[in-house]
Each structure stands twice: as structure tokens, then as C-alpha cells.
Design goal:
The complex is a heterodimer of chains A (595) and B (758). Chain A has 30 helices and 2 strands. By secondary structure, chain A is an all-alpha fold. In chain A, a hairpin with a 5-residue loop joins strand 1 and strand 2. The two termini of chain A are 30 Å apart. The N terminus and C terminus of chain A are likely disordered. Chain B has 758 residues and is an all-alpha fold. Helix content of chain B is 72%, strand content 1%. Chain B is built from 36 helices and 2 strands. In chain B, strands 1-2 form a two-stranded antiparallel sheet. In chain B, helix 11 packs antiparallel against helix 12 and helix 26 runs antiparallel to helix 27. The longest helix of chain B has 20 residues. Chain B is elongated, with a radius of gyration of 35 Å. The N terminus of chain B is likely disordered. Classes of the chains: A mainly alpha (595), B mainly alpha (758). Chains A and B meet through helix 5, helix 6, helix 18, helix 20 and helix 22 of A and strand 2, helix 7, helix 8, helix 9 and helix 13 of B. Chain B: Keywords: Cell cycle, Cell division, Cytoplasm, Cytoskeleton, Mitosis, Nucleus, Phosphoprotein, Repeat, TPR repeat, Ubl conjugation pathway. Chain B: Belongs to the APC5 family. Chain B: One of its GO terms (biological process) is positive regulation of mitotic metaphase/anaphase transition. Chain B: This is Anaphase-promoting complex subunit 5.
Chain lengths: 595, 758
């Protein structure tokens, strides 16, 4: 059980002289174990959000659902009704129904004179949404091609002016601060937006929307550390979310694990987040198990299913992917995630045109969908349409500069176009973003090798091996490089490490290359007159089809040589992994690597 | 990324996965500014305008059409300057529309003169104006109802934003002020009236030639082309790097598919030596270009195969510019390989010219490559590359000591080529090169003449056609030579005047050249005046710009401060280095300095072989000024070795004339002084010295006085006093002695034995 501190939100709300509803923070510190309190807070914040038309605060309900239900008398009382609230009640009810019908201007009109905080928020919020809606509408019939990028939410500036005035006067509550932050962000005033979001979080720590907006603005760990955030239990959720975003998966997993232990074990949100984290570090089996669990608990869920389909794709599980795709189509076929899943499905069936079509559809639904751009790039690569692939990857980068897959894809494209030097830049970018990913390092090494920069290539391969090689190719390539450069000792050492690596990971991977290693090692020992070891390697060679003849030939040679000297007493049938001969090459302190 | 273009939100008009940059198909559209322009055109055809006014207006039309949208105030002001009456009429027309109803605008379009009908008018359909009108008609016809309404609203805004301001002279200013104040001034109630202010917030208009508003496709192209052109031809006139960057970011925000902007960004980043940004922009540009070039769909001459080759080539040039020679080499190899695979000879030719440049910068001999390049370029009819190759050959030849007439012949031949193809850039380079060659040979008059020729040449480029000034690298080289030549003649004032002509905003090559030249001049001046403590800090600055030069100067300072051992070791190192890199000039100078060091330790006989070697080198490379300086040194050594007759002989034979004709003031003074001393010593046995000897001495004194070189002046006065005494002219003798005494007191440092210095 971890002990975390949090600010307790008092019983719902407090009425301050100014007539503001605040969730007032007291400094009472309770443990995470006090789930009842958390649940109470969640319930009250959900109702607050609902009153204000903030629809996407569903995360809170999801969390609340994950906790045990409260007995009737424990339910938090609804926030007290003030004089102002009573005054505005009718207007608010009317406006809220218009708001729900998406008639924002109408809602704003009826709310204009209202003075309660709730009404004010709804007033501003409907003006904001009306501006957004108009912006979207106007994008269609703008006056010219260049104006289209310039179409903007006209209401934003007015909102900013009004909100900033109130902000200076200190009249904004948590929700309006959140809205102010959103307005600032939309106006690209990012620095101010961060400040306002932090303020909003302090005023109302339970509003997950503000945290989420903040998370979009935090770009690196230093910035995250420099923020002063309230010590609330929700901060742990935020930190875990941030760690996932910043690719600090280990920390994120730790956080989520402790949250589960603290009592959120039923939360689908946490399960999905952990699954995504596992996906990011390519721990495929764990992630798959979690996603399957998630599907059981929440069978009509569409969020994150694109990630799930990626995993199924990597594993090549056609039936599962097909089942998932059909299932999602039944639920909602016009969702970005659905389209991505179908795209993956077609891609796995090698119907790349159809796959690309579905990714395009996903992009039509949401052009900022990063994954779809990258995946479309991959499809075009498959179709050998390099220029379209470059286009798709560039778009992905435009959406998110830190998308290492797109950079890597660009590198691959240029590698296919036989421009090894040109692709170096892209691989380097990808490597910068994922310094501990062996795939980029191997790609870099290959490019360097093509440019005959052996020193750099060797460094890359060795580094790829050191950070934990996923594809188990780095050592082999390194060994071959050493072989080319006639550094036979190094080559033998690498081959040996390679064999140990392959055998220690247990899985039966591609074996064609093991035979190469054995063949080389046999020759190497033979040349160094270590006949026992050489014959052992030759024996093992005979297990593989492509090296059998050479193995036999080597054995014959060895026996010839031995006849000339004397008969040795080698244990030829000992298992290799225990008896790998390392006399010339000093036995290394090897830690068998698990991927 | 917040600024992601959401343009695709409803319009991912993709075919084959490629989003076309211009999804709307029209390159032009109606804006309030365009409407006012149309009103102007309409007014011009309709009303009677006097001929000079009409002429002025006609001249205005094209820039107005091509330029970015102006605010109404700016627009009316420009028109007013040409013809106030028309401006008023246009204003009236706009007023009618803006204060009327939607139908007024519709009527305006309906009522416009139709370019199809008016056959004999100036606005006939094929004329520039007619074309513009037709574009506008088409664009207007395509508008939907809501778009027309929007256009009308924006026209109203456009008109009222001009008149809402009290003073219509300063349109840009109130908008900027409003930025800070509107938070306090406005209250939520008058949001509608506020809107106009807000609009202006978006577009704070500069009085400069461009505004921050969105540019149409054509206007953007025009802007980019012009800036790129200015960057190449006259950096002073281009926008400052920061401003240009901002402008480009703005443009890319509105239209991220505008690939050319990335290229300009690359050029701009090169100006400020930003490798990361420039590499990023370059690659981005080519990624984009590959898309747009895809329409050819072939891997051959057109299509994206071509841009791939040039992408690699450009990357090579980028690395080369930043001094990453190994990287550049790799990129170049790649470009060559791809070009070879697709048989692109032109691209290969470009690669070859970069290859020899690369070889040259790395200090290896690339003559053969260059010759090949010239031959092939001539074969493929690429005059630019061919003559660039020849110029590079000439440069190599000059450093390797090829005979002058061959070099000049080659340059003359290329000049003919240049004028034939009007390659103005190469003409400039050729002139600058001639200047440098003459200067190297020590013919200062010829160098001066060539430099003046270049600086006074009217530019051929239309950007400043007929104007003398042109800020290219060649221009900077000529300026530097000019400044140094003037400094040699002790006319320092000219330097400050010349430096005004150079671009100062960024670290361009010209700027670096000028900085080095300026430092060298200052250094020489301080050394001549004996202010070694002032010269010393300059050495650091010089070595930051040019290592070899810095080392040489450092040795000089050390020598002057009598730290001979250190100086000697530096000189030795320098000599080895320069012999390797074949900097003959520096080698000779280093030898001379070493010889001077030998003198200080009275090793005159050890200095001799060194000097003879230097002389041989100088002669071999036709470096006249260095040769005469060497002879000067040689004569001095001989003098010291006690053979003044020989020294005199050598001096008269080969030194005095060229020095007096072409040499620097310092050299002239030294030569004259030396001659006088030789004469004195040579005629010493006879008690009667000819009074003629005094003339060169006083001349030398005048030279040293001009240089403010007090130490040498002191020597001169000493010698003068001696001579006067032996001639029995006591009063003059006393006068010289007094001058000597005054200087001696002023200098404080004990006078070294006169004999010890040249």
C-alpha cells in the first residue's frame, strides 16, 4: 500500500461571499486507501461537469464505476443552492437544453445576463463552441485556397479579452479557468495556457479535462518537473499519463501498478493505459493479454482498439484481427479506430490498396490522427509508391514531430531508393527520439556499412546489442563486419555471443544464421588448432541443412589432422550451451539477454 | 504541434495518397483589396485622366497586381501620389459599396467593363489587365451564397477599418497600440464594435513592402522568388534573417504544402550558419518536391528521380559549406551514383564541379578533375559550369606559378563566353579574380584598376539595373583588395567608407572576408607604429578567422617583442604546414621572417641561403612584390656582411624600381633608407660624401613620417645627422640630432643599434 497525500475536496462545494462555487481544498491528508472519499469526490465532480456540459469528463465516471458503490446515506450531498443559482435557474435550464441540442448561439443569448458561476461558464463555453462550429463550417466555403489555413474561431479573441479581465480580477473558478486555458491554447499562446491550466488544476484538481489539456502542452521531462501541481491523488494518474507520453515506460508502469494496488484494479482506463505502455516497449504478449482482458470487461469499447490491432498485426494473428475488425464495424464503422483496425486487417492480408483506402478514410474522419498517417506510409511502402509514402510520413511528422516511426519510415524509404547517406539523417532523428531502440541503431549501422564507414557501423551494432536487441540481428551483423575486416578474434567472439543469445532467449528464431555462425566458429577453431571445439562446432553444423556438407568436410579434416597427432577424448555430444568452448577467446561474463 | 494545418479537415482531396497543394483549382480569388484594385482599373478606363497621370498609374498597375494585399490606406496613398482625382473616385465607389447593401457589390461586378466585348479598350481579354479581370470574374462566379456574403462583410470591414481610425495617414500604428489597450478599454457588451479592432490585431500592417496577411499563391511565389534573388544578388536589400524567417513561418502556417518556402528557409538558415535548421529545411523541401515532381511519374529526366539526385547533391553542398568534408564526400558519392544509374549527364556535371571544389578545399590537387569537368561541361553546353571550371583552374594555376599570360588569356576567353551568355555573376568573379592575380603579382596599379572596374561596373541584374553597387562575394573581394591597397599607401580613411558598402546583418562569406581584411589592416598599422601591445589582441581575432594568417601574425608580434625562440618555433611549424598546403606566398613571408630572426642573432650568413631560396620561389611564382622584398632583405644581409657595393648593385638591378612603382609606403621608405646606407658605407673610404645622398634619406623620412613609424624615423634622423656632419653642415646636423633626441625620449625604449634593422 502506498501512502500518498491528497487534498480533500470538502463536501461538494462551498459558498464564498462572491457567490462562487469552489471545491475548496483543505489540507486534510488521507491515504489512497480511503477509496470512499475518492468515490465521493468523483461523484460530485461528475455532477458538476454534467451541469456544465463538459461531456468528455467521462473518465471520472469510468473511475467511479471502478470503485465499489456507496451506500445511500454515504452519497455526497448535491452542492448547496445559492441565491444567484436560484435566480438563473430558469435561464440556465433553458440554455442547457439548447446547448444539448447544439444550438450554441441560442444558449448563449439566453444566458447573457446571468451572474452565477455556472451560468457564466455555460455562457462562455457555448460561445466558444459556437465559434468552433462556425470555424469548421467556414472551412468548406472559404474565399480562397490560402484563406483556408487562416480560418479561425472568431470568438476566441473576444473570449480571451473577457476572460483575461476576469482572470486579473480573480473572478474565475476552476471550470472557467480551464476554458480560459483552452482559449489561450487555441490562440497559440502556449506559455500563458500552461500557467492558466496549472491554476485551473489548483482550483479544481478533480477536473481531469484540465490535466489532459496540460499534458498536451508538456513537451519534456524538465518542463514536467518544473510545474507546481497540487498533491492530489489524481496527480498520480497525470504523472503516469505523462510518463507514457514522454516514452518513460518503466516509470509509467510503476505508477499504474501502484494505482492498481491502491484499489483501482477494476478501472478499464488503467488497464488500457498499461496495455498501451506495454505496446510502446514492445512487450507484445503482456499487452495482448491486457487487451483481451479489456475486451472482456468492456466489449463495446472502441478506444485504443487500433493499438490492439497493431499488436495482433505484429503477431500475425489473422483470425483475431478479423474478428476484432468485424466486431468494431458492427459497433461503429465511422470511427477512426475502426478504420485503422480494418486497414491493419487488409494490410495483414496483403491487400495494401484497400488498407490504404481505409487509412485514408480514418484521416478523413480526423486528419490529425497520427497513427493513420504513419500506417498509410507503411502501406505505400509496401506498394512501392515511395513518393506517396514520403508524403504520408511527412504529414505524420507535421502532426507530431516526435513520431519516431514516421522518421524511421522516411529513412527506410530513402534506403529503398538506395540513398544510404540521405537516410542517415532520418534514422538519426528516429534514434534521437528513441535512444534505446535497437531497430534504429541497426538501421543506422546498416547505412554506415553501405557507406563503408565500418567504425561507425561497428559502434552502432554494438550499441544496438547493448541496449537489448529486439531482432537479434545486431550481433550477427557485427560479426560479419569483423569477418570482412579480417578481425577473426572479434568475429568469433561476436558469433559466440550471438549463438548464446539465440539459445538463451529460448524462442526458436530463424536458424539459418546460427549455422553461419557455427560454420565460422568451426573454421576459426580449426585454424587456431583447437580441434575439440572445432569438431563440436562442426557436429552442430550438421544439424542444419545448409551447413551440413561443410560440417562433414570439417569433421573429416579434423579427424585427418588428429590422426596425425593423437586421438583426443572430447565429449562430442555435450550440449553446446554448457560446453561452448572459449579458450582462445576469453570467456565473457555474459548475461543472457531476454528481449 | 498546434499549428497543424486543419485545412485537410474537410478536404483531403487525395489521389494516390497525394494531397494536391492547390485543392481549389483556382490560383486567384476575390478579396476586398482586389475589389478596390478593380475599382481603380474601372475608373481608369472610364474617366478622363491627363496623360502624365495616366502614365504614372499605368506603371503602378503591375506592382499592385503582383504585390501582397495592401490596406486601404496604403492603397489609396499610392494611388493618390499618382492621381488624386482617381483616388477620390475609387474611394467614392468603395464607400458606395461598403455603406450600401449586398446588391451594391453585386451591381459593381455586373457593371464592370467586360473584357470580351470592349475590343478596342486597354482591358482587352489578352492584356494583363484583361487577364486579371477575367480571373476575378471567374473567381467571383464560383463563390457560393455564403461566400459572397462573407466577401461583402470583409469588404465592409476593409473599408471601415480604414475610416474608423481618426488619422488616415497612419494605418498601421493605431492597430499596434490597440494590442495592449483593448483589454482595458473594451467591455464585454460592445463585442460587435470590438470586432473591427480584433481584425486589425491579426494584421498589423507594416509600412514595408509586405504585410503579414496571407498571400495568394501568385503573391507568395513572387515574394519567394524575389527574396531568393535578393539573397543571391544583393543581401543588403533582402529581409533580415529573423524577419524573413518569421515571414516564411507565417506563409507555411497558411500553406504548409508550399515547398519552395522550405528552400528559402534553407538559404536563410545558411546565412546565419545554422546547420540544424538548414539541413532540416533542405530535406523537408526535397521531401515535398518529390511529391510535386511526381506528376511526371518517370524515374528519368523529369519526375522525382531527378529531384532525388539533386537532393543528394544539395546535401553535399550543404555539408561542404559547413566544412564537413567527409560527410559532403559521402553525399556526393551518393549523388554521383544515382546520377550515373539514370544517365543524367547534367547532374553528373554538377557533381563533378562539386567534386573538384571539395578536393580543392581539402587541399589536394584537383587540376585533372577540373580539366575534365571543363571539357565535359563544354561538351554538354553548360557554359556556366565550364567557365566556373576555368576560373577555378586559373586560381589553381596562379597558386602553382603558371605563367601570367596563360592565366590572363584563359580569363579573357571566359570573359567572352560570359558576355555572350550574360552571366553577370561570373563576370564579376572574373574581374575580382583578375584583381587578386594582379595583386598577388605585386602590380598594385593594375589591381587597383581592376578593382575600380568591378566596383564601378553597372550591374546587369534587373534588381538594381544600372546601379553601381552590387553586394556579392566578388564585390567583397574587390573591396577588400581596394582597402588593403589603400592601407598600403596609408590612406586609412577610405576603409571606413568602403565598409559602409558591405552587408552587415549576418555572417556571410563577404562579411568574414571583410572582417579579416579589416583586422589585417589594423594589425599592420599598429605594427608599423610600433604599438605592439595593440597589435597583440588582434592576433586572436585573426586566427579565429584564418588560422594560418593568425599564426604568422603571432610570430610577427613575438618577433617584435624580442621573444625570438617562441617566434622561431612558430615560424618553423608554419613553414612546414604551408609547404604542405602549397601557400607559396606565406612560405616566402615566413622565410623572410625567419631570416630577420637570424639577423637578430647576428647570423647573417645563415640568413643568406634562406633568402636565396625565398627569392627563387618568388621568382618562380612571379610574385614581384615579394621578390623585391626578398631582394631588400638580401641587400641588407650583404650590407651587414660588409659588401655594400654588392648590395647596392643588387638593389639597383632589381629592387628599387618595382618597389617605388608598386610597393607599399613602408617598403619604399625601407628601400630608400637602405640605398642611402649602402651608398654611405660604399663611399666611406673617400671622405667626401656626395650631398645627393641626402635626398633619398629625406624622402624616406617623409614616408616614415606618413606611416607614423617613429622608430624608423629615429634611425633616419640619426643617419641624417651623421651625413650632415660628414658634409660639414653643422646646423642641419644639429637639427637632425635634435629630432633624433626628441624621438628617442618619446620612445623611451633604448634604440637598438641602427645597423641591426632593415
Amino acid at each position: 500500500m502506498i501512502i500518498l497525500f491528497w487534498d480533500q475536496a470538502g463536501n461538494g462545494s462551498d459558498v464564498t461571499p462572491g457567490g462562487r462555487n469552489y471545491l475548496v481544498l483543505t489540507t486534510n491528508k488521507i491515504h489512497f486507501g480511503d477509496l470512499v472519499q475518492i468515490k465521493k469526490q468523483l461523484i460530485s465532480v461528475i455532477s458538476l461537469c454534467k451541469e456544465r456540459g463538459l461531456l468528455h469528463s467521462a473518465k471520472a465516471s469510468e473511475l467511479a464505476f471502478a470503485l465499489d458503490p456507496l451506500p445511500k446515506d454515504e452519497l455526497p450531498p448535491s452542492p448547496p443552492f445559492t441565491e444567484e443559482d436560484a435566480q438563473d435557474l430558469d435561464a440556465l435550464t433553458l440554455a442547457k437544453s439548447y446547448f444539448d441540442l447544439k444550438e450554441y448561439d441560442r444558449a448563449a443569448y439566453f444566458l447573457k445576463g446571468c451572474c452565477s458561476q455556472k451560468a457564466y461558464f455555460l455562457y462562455m463555453y457555448s460561445r466558444y463552441l459556437s465559434g468552433e462550429k462556425k470555424k469548421d463550417d467556414e472551412t468548406v466555403d472559404s474565399l480562397g485556397p490560402l484563406e483556408k489555413g487562416q480560418v479561425r474561431n472568431e470568438a476566441l479573441r473576444e473570449l480571451r479579452v473577457e476572460l483575461s479581465k476576469k482572470h486579473i480580477a480573480g473572478e474565475l473558478d476552476g471550470f472557467t479557468l480551464y476554458l480560459y486555458g483552452v482559449v489561450l491554447r487555441k490562440l497559440d499562446l502556449l506559455k500563458e495556457a500552461v500557467e492558466v491550466f496549472v491554476e485551473a488544476i489548483h482550483a479544481l484538481p478533480l477536473h481531469w479535462g484540465a490535466w489532459l489539456e496540460l499534458s498536451n502542452l508538456v513537451t519534456n521531462i524538465e518542463m514536467l518537473k518544473s510545474l507546481s501541481l497540487p498533491d492530489c491523488w489524481i496527480k498520480d494518474f497525470f504523472m503516469a499519463h505523462m510518463y507514457t507520453e514522454l516514452q518513460m515506460i518503466k516509470e509509467a508502469l510503476q505508477k499504474y501498478q501502484s494505482l492498481i494496488e491502491a484499489g483501482f484494479s477494476k478501472s478499464t482506463y488503467i488497464i488500457s493505459q498499461i496495455a498501451v505502455a506495454y505496446h510502446n516497449i514492445r512487450d507484445i504478449d503482456q499487452a495482448l493479454a491486457l487487451f483481451n482482458q479489456l475486451r472482456e470487461q468492456d466489449p463495446y469499447r472502441i478506444d485504443n482498439m487500433d493499438t490492439f490491432s497493431n499488436l495482433l498485426y505484429v503477431k500475425g494473428m489473422k483470425p483475431n484481427l478479423s474478428y476484432l475488425a468485424h466486431n468494431l464495424v458492427e459497433i461503429d464503422k465511422y470511427r477512426v479506430e475502426t478504420c485503422c483496425v480494418i486497414g491493419n486487417y487488409y494490410s495483414l492480408r496483403s491487400q495494401h490498396e484497400k488498407a490504404a483506402l481505409y487509412f485514408q478514410r480514418a484521416l478523413k474522419l480526423n486528419p490529425r490522427c497520427l497513427g493513420a498517417w504513419t500506417l498509410m506510409g507503411h502501406e505505400y511502402m509496401e506498394m512501392k509508391n515511395t513518393s506517396a509514402a514520403i508524403q504520408a510520413y511527412r504529414h505524420a511528422i507535421e502532426v507530431n514531430k516526435r513520431d519516431y516511426r514516421a522518421w524511421y519510415g522516411l529513412g527506410q524509404t530513402y534506403e529503398i531508393l538506395k540513398m544510404p547517406f540521405y537516410c542517415l539523417y532520418y534514422y538519426r532523428k528516429a534514434h534521437q527520439l528513441r535512444p534505446n531502440d535497437s531497430r534504429m541503431l541497426v538501421a543506422l549501422g546498416e547505412s554506415y556499412e553501405k557507406l563503408s564507414q565500418q567504425v561507425e557501423a561497428k559502434k552502432c551494432y554494438w550499441r544496438a546489442y547493448s541496449v537489448g536487441d529486439v531482432e537479434k540481428m545486431a550481433l550477427l551483423k557485427l560479426a560479419k563486419l569483423h569477418e570482412q575486416l579480417n578481425e577473426s578474434d572479434d568475429a568469433a567472439q561476436c558469433y559466440m555471443l550471438y549463438i548464446q543469445d539465440i539459445f538463451s532467449c529460448g524462442e526458436q528464431l530463424e536458424h539459418a544464421e546460427v549455422s553461419t555462425a557455427l560454420r565460422y566458429l568451426g573454421q576459426y577453431y580449426f585454424k587456431n588448432k583447437l580441434y575439440d571445439e572445432a569438431s563440436l562446432c562442426a557436429q552442430r553444423c550438421c544439424d542444419y541443412n545448409d551447413a551440413r556438407e561443410e560440417g562433414k568436410a570439417l569433421l573429416r579434416q579434423i579427424s585427418q589432422v588428429r590422426d596425425q597427432i593423437e586421438t583426443p577424448s572430447a565429449d562430442l555430444f555435450a550440449p553446446l550451451s554448457n560446453n561452448t568452448p572459449v579458450r582462445r577467446v576469453s570467456p565473457l561474463n555474459l548475461i543472457s539477454f531476454t528481449p | 504541434m498546434a499549428s497543424v494545418h486543419e485545412s485537410l479537415y474537410f478536404n483531403p482531396m487525395m489521389t494516390n495518397g497525394v494531397v494536391h497543394a492547390n485543392v481549389f483549382g483556382t490560383r486567384d480569388w476575390v478579396s476586398p483589396y482586389k475589389i478596390s484594385l478593380m475599382a481603380l482599373l474601372c475608373e481608369m478606363t472610364a474617366s478622363k485622366i491627363s496623360l502624365p497621370e495616366r502614365r504614372r498609374l499605368n506603371k503602378l498597375i503591375l506592382p499592385l497586381q503582383q504585390g501582397p494585399d495592401l490596406s486601404l490606406g496604403q492603397f489609396l496613398k499610392t494611388v493618390e501620389e499618382c492621381c488624386p482625382q482617381t483616388a477620390y473616385a475609387v474611394k467614392l465607389k468603395l464607400h458606395e459599396m461598403a455603406n450600401g447593401e449586398l446588391k451594391d457589390m453585386e451591381y459593381f461586378f455586373y457593371d464592370l467593363p467586360n473584357p470580351y466585348i470592349a475590343f478596342d479598350s486597354e482591358a482587352y481579354k489578352t492584356s494583363v489587365v484583361g487577364l486579371f479581370m477575367r480571373h476575378m470574374f471567374l473567381a467571383y462566379d464560383k463563390l457560393s451564397f455564403s461566400q459572397v456574403y462573407k466577401l461583402y462583410k470583409s469588404l465592409q470591414q476593409y473599408y471601415h477599418s480604414h475610416y474608423a481610425k481618426p488619422s488616415d495617414g497612419q494605418v498601421g500604428l493605431p492597430a499596434l497600440v490597440a494590442d495592449d489597450s483593448d483589454m482595458d478599454l473594451t467591455n464585454p457588451e460592445d463585442a460587435v464594435g470590438d470586432r473591427i479592432d480584433k481584425e486589425e490585431l491579426d494584421t498589423p500592417l507594416h509600412e514595408s513592402e509586405l504585410s503579414r496577411g496571407p498571400l495568394s499563391q501568385k503573391q507568395a511565389e513572387y515574394f519567394l522568388a524575389r527574396q531568393a534573388y535578393l539573397l543571391k544578388n544583393d543581401e543588403n536589400k533582402a529581409l533580415k534573417p529573423a524577419a524573413l524567417q518569421e515571414e516564411l513561418n507565417n506563409m507555411l502556417k497558411f500553406n504548409p504544402d508550399f515547398a519552395e518556402a522550405h528552400y528559402l528557409n534553407y538559404l536563410n538558415s545558411m546565412r546565419v550558419q545554422d546547420i540544424f535548421l538548414s539541413a532540416h529545411s533542405l530535406l523537408h523541401y526535397f521531401d515535398r518536391l518529390i511529391l510535386s515532381g511526381n506528376e511526371g511519374k518517370s524515374n528519368g529526366d523529369e519526375g522525382y528521380g531527378r529531384s532525388l539526385r539533386y537532393a543528394a547533391l544539395n546535401l553535399a553542398s550543404l555539408h561542404c559549406r559547413f566544412g564537413h568534408y567527409q560527410q559532403a564526400d559521402l553525399a556526393l558519392q551518393e549523388a554521383i551514383r544515382i546520377a550515373q544509374e539514370s544517365n543524367d549527364h547534367v547532374c553528373l556535371q554538377h557533381c563533378l564541379s562539386w567534386l573538384y571544389t571539395l578536393e580543392q578545399t581539402r587541399g589536394s590537387d584537383s587540376t585533372v578533375l577540373t580539366e575534365d569537368s571543363v571539357k565535359m561541361a563544354a561538351h554538354f553546353c553548360l557554359p556556366y559550369l565550364a567557365s566556373l571550371g576555368i576560373q577555378s583552374l586559373v586560381q589553381q594555376g596562379a597558386t602553382q606559378g603558371k605563367t601570367a599570360h596563360k592565366l590572363m588569356d584563359a580569363l579573357k576567353d571566359t570573359d567572352i563566353l560570359h558576355w555572350k551568355h550574360s552571366l553577370s555573376e561570373l563576370i564579376e568573379i572574373s574581374l575580382a579574380q583578375t584583381t587578386s592575380i594582379w595583386r598577388m603579382y605585386g602590380k598594385s596599379t593594375m589591381a587597383l584598376q581592376q578593382a575600380q572596374l568591378l566596383l564601378n561596373m553597372s550591374s546587369l541584374e534587373p534588381v538594381n539595373f544600372g546601379v553601381q553597387q552590387n553586394n556579392t562575394e566578388a564585390f567583397a573581394v574587390a573591396l577588400c583588395h581596394l582597402a588593403e591597397l589603400h592601407a598600403e599607401q596609408v590612406t586609412y580613411l577610405i576603409r571606413s567608407r568602403l565598409s559602409a558598402a558591405l552587408p552587415r546583418c549576418c555572417v556571410s562569406i563577404s562579411q568574414l572576408l571583410w572582417m579579416l581584411c579589416d583586422l589585417k589592416i589594423q594589425f599592420e598599422r599598429h605594427m608599423n607604429e610600433g604599438k605592439y601591445h595593440l597589435a597583440e589582441p588582434l592576433v586572436t581575432a585573426i586566427s579565429a578567422l584564418n588560422k594560418t594568417e593568425g599564426l604568422y601574425r603571432k610570430a610577427q608580434v613575438l618577433k617584435a617583442l624580442n621573444r625570438s625562440t617562441e617566434a622561431y618555433s612558430i615560424l618553423q611549424r608554419l613553414q612546414v604546414h604551408c609547404e604542405k598546403t602549397k601557400c607559396t606566398e606565406v612560405v616566402i613571408r615566413v622565410m623572410l621572417s625567419t631570416a630577420e630572426l637570424h639577423w637578430e642573432s647576428s647570423g647573417f650568413s645563415t640568413a643568406l641561403p634562406l633568402l636565396l631560396q625565398a627569392l627563387a620561389l618568388a621568382r618562380q611564382h612571379h610574385l614581384q612584390s615579394l621578390a623585391s622584398e626578398t631582394i631588400l632583405h638580401l641587400a641588407f644581409t650583404q650590407l651587414m656582411l660588409g659588401v655594400p657595393e654588392q648590395a647596392l648593385c643588387v638593389l639597383h638591378e632589381a629592387c628599387i624600381e618595382p618597389v617605388l612603382a608598386h610597393g607599399a609606403v613602408m617598403d619604399k621608405g625601407r628601400a630608400l633608407l637602405l640605398t642611402a646606407r649602402c651608398n654611405t658605407l660604399a663611399s666611406l673610404p673617400s671622405p667626401h660624401l656626395p650631398a645627393v645622398l641626402l635626398i633619398p634619406i629625406s624622402e624616406a623620412a617623409a614616408y616614415f613620417f606618413r606611416l607614423n613609424c617613429k622608430e624608423r624615423l629615429r634611425d633616419v634622423h640619426y643617419l641624417q645627422a651623421q651625413l650632415h656632419r660628414s658634409l660639414g653642415q653643422t646646423s642641419q646636423c644639429n637639427k637632425s640630432a635634435m629630432l633624433f633626441r626628441l624621438l628617442d625620449q618619446e620612445l623611451q625604449s633604448p634604440a637598438p643599434p641602427v645597423s641591426m634593422r632593415l
